[in-house]
Amino acid sequence: MKKLTPLILIASTVLVSVLLAGCWQTVTRPYRNVTSLQPFPAGAITEKGLDGKEVHYALRKIARGRYRMTQTDRGRDFGQGFELDFFPLPGAPNNVLIYQAAALDRTARDDNLRYYGLLVVTVPYGAMEIRPDCEKDARAARASNTRKGKDGACTFASRAALEKSLLALWKSGKKPEHSYTLH
Fold it and tell me: What is the pLDDT of residue 151?
């Protein structure tokens, strides 16, 4: 897992955009009693989207295997970020991880809302994010009988349902939209 460490850090920066409509989410905190994987050191990360734009973040370790990722570019989003967790995805290769993200303002209130997607760790110092969309990835969400709600998001009832749909998403061949590099 040490080789995966830099890649996971990079992929965590992708999560900053997770709060877009149509995300995959839970309000039950299915990994509440599970310690997150923490296979990488803290450090600087650069995210690159399909448009080629770069965004910079700082990643630091916090309690129970979690990370805190905050934007370091000056501007209106400076200091904004996420608390991140990474978990294995049963049935997928070991470099494919589930990410769980919570906006920092929600973690301060102990809010249960969490966002999910896939992180593909790449060698030597990177990761790619596969960010699910409720409408575009409806077939994968339906693998666990989950449908788009009135809020436009897919809200999963259980950890088993979430993992079943994330595995279906992985097997669908959806291409990553963001890449991360650890410095």
Answer: 81
- Intra-chain end-to-end CA distance of the chain, in Å: 18
9-30: b or e for each residue (b if 16 or more CB lie within 10 Å)?
A: bbbbbbbbbbeeebbbbbebbb
Closest CA to 98 of 108, 107, 85: 85
Q: What secondary structure does DSSP assign to the chain, as a single string?
A: -GGGHHHHHHHHGGGGGTTSTT-EEESS-TTTTSPPP--S--EEEEEEETT--EEEEEEEE-GGG-EEEEE-SSSTTTT-EEEEEEEE-TTS-TTEEEEEEEEHHHHHTT---EEEEEEEEETTTEEEEE---TTTTHHHHHTTT--B-TTSSEE-SSHHHHHHHHHHHHHTTPPPSEEEEE-
Distance CA 80, CA 71 (A): 6
pLDDT along the chain (183 residues), means of 10: 42 39 80 85 90 94 91 91 94 96 76 88 86 92 90 90 97 94 88
